[in-house]
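We treat protein structure as text, and this decision shapes the records that our systems exchange. Because each token names a local backbone shape, the row as a whole describes the fold. An entry from our holdings is shown next, in its original layout:
>
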Amino acid sequence: MIGKITGRIEYRTSDHVLIDVRGVGYLVYCSERTLAALPGVGEATALYTELLVREDVLQLFGFLTLVEKEWHRLLTSVQGVGAKASLAILGALGPDGVSRAIALGDWNAVRAAKGVGPKIAQRVVLDLKDKAPGVMAMGGTVAQATGDVGAEVIEPMPPIAKPQPPANASSQSEALSALGNLGYAPGDAAGAVAQAGAENPEADTPALIRAALKLLAPKG
């Protein structure tokens, strides 16, 4: 299993890049959002990867973060969602957007992805809502996980700019754990924490818990 690719971008197209790793070129398919975040041709990059194995094809898919990779794995586990649809959803919403949409049950947001109809969007939300808390607790790029992006490339590589996780990612994870300990269902807790975090990105753990509890309180 190929879990990570580190090398220089040889060329790029609308849906994939060729990454040269010590003279071996790997075709890696990515979402539009991930492709837009990659550096230019000739520059160094690092991607988490997922290998699709079929009788007639081997395809590598690349992701900047573990959250994006995990959502791809989960999305493609939903009946009717293939790799192309998964990348379309991730390209339209981004991994954090997918987390929020699924946690909040917002299937209309998922439907906004190209080629994804209402039935598939609803199925994605229903099948994966309880998986959102675990994914939301993940984070980090290849460089943050390994501590050295350039370890596998012979030539010295320039620094690579990478997106940072949400400011309150750790607070959201702690708030989710606290609400779980209070007996709230994972899906309900994830939705409340996601909404609270979106409304106040700088909130610390206690503030997120208070806000989420208000959202979870019975109405009326």
Q: What stands out?
A: The longest helix spans residues 83-103.
